[in-house]
Known about the structure:
With 166 residues, this protein is an all-alpha fold. It is built from eight helices and no strands.
Amino acid sequence: MMKAFQITNLFTPLLLVLLLTSCEKEKDYIYEVNPVNVQQGGSTKNNAKSTVEFVTIAWADLFGTQIPQQELVKLNTVYSSFGDKKLIEDRILLNLLNKPGIQVPSATNVNGDTLKFIQNTYKKLYNRSPDAFEQYYMKEQIRLNTAISATVIWYALMSADEYRYY
């Protein structure tokens, strides 16, 4: 019994040294994602176009010229006299898209180099390039609906909220 106690006394300091040096505090790892800018340049639009700006810019986009003063006054009067602004914007766009002389790309541009048509349309109407998903979605819609015209696409983009802001 005494011999066992002596052996235990010899190993106790050794065991203490081994225990103290073998224990190590666990490190806390923090995994983070690097900051990535997910917005395109020009995609942040906070300022709503005024009525005159909206009509003037829509005319310039569709006809490539400045709107005649008489036409601007007429459209502005119609816009101001109607309560539902979104509805009258829609009517003004449809009216402008049905006028002769609009400069919307032809069907061969839509179904030919579709990607170029989409990029040019976004740059013309939104002053920015389409993102990857917008490109994919628009290209798929054109591929699935071969009868879709550039006028319909332009109407869809011009009647969206983004067109109302700069």
